[in-house]
Sequence to fold (236 residues):
Amino acid sequence: MSRPRVILKLSGEVLAGPSGSGIDPAVLGSMAGDLARAAFDGARAGVVLGGGNIFRGLGAAARGMDRVTADEMGMLATVINGLALRDAVRRAGAAAELYTARPLGPIGRPYLRDEALACIDGGALAVFAGGTGNPFFSTDSGAALRAAELGCALLLKGTKVDGVYDKDPAKFADAVRFDSLNVDEMIERKLGVMDLTAATLCRENGIDIIVYKMAEKDAVYRAALGEAQGTRVTAR
Fold:
């Protein structure tokens, strides 16, 4: 029986490692190794990357930059991360393709749904960059959009903590972790797992969300196989 088709949302900040910016070769290599190993074991996965380790459009807009320009720069930052991940996965011995939301010539393939489906179902890793291709949308929304378009069963979001809590566990010792909840509860409680657009897309298309801790051993490997351990946010 084939594995479920899944989308992994990975933040750009994770790629930065201890330095907090740029791309840490050790972190990139570990992530790529997990993804390549998952591909060898039958994963049918796509990855949507953020770009916050290089440039955050929303932060730049808050400091006075034109919002559309800032978001376009942020989209380009995700392409840089996508190129790095594609290269690292290939060096780890697995097949990978980079798809960009806007045409970027020889840098990556322009995103076409049928091509991306063939890539994933053929056992290669599909790396999606450029968000939705439009300003004013987060990379979480981009991940939810790709998951809906590609008929994915799960959207797996890697974070710094091991699931969804009722408040920030880094600040509150009495924070309570949820084993499961549904999207409506997540929205009503304002838990900040992802923005409203992304959450609504998942709910309307029957896509469950799993929030897991990326730093745990084999976490990305298990996520690519649809087996991550964390809080499950059900669509219904």
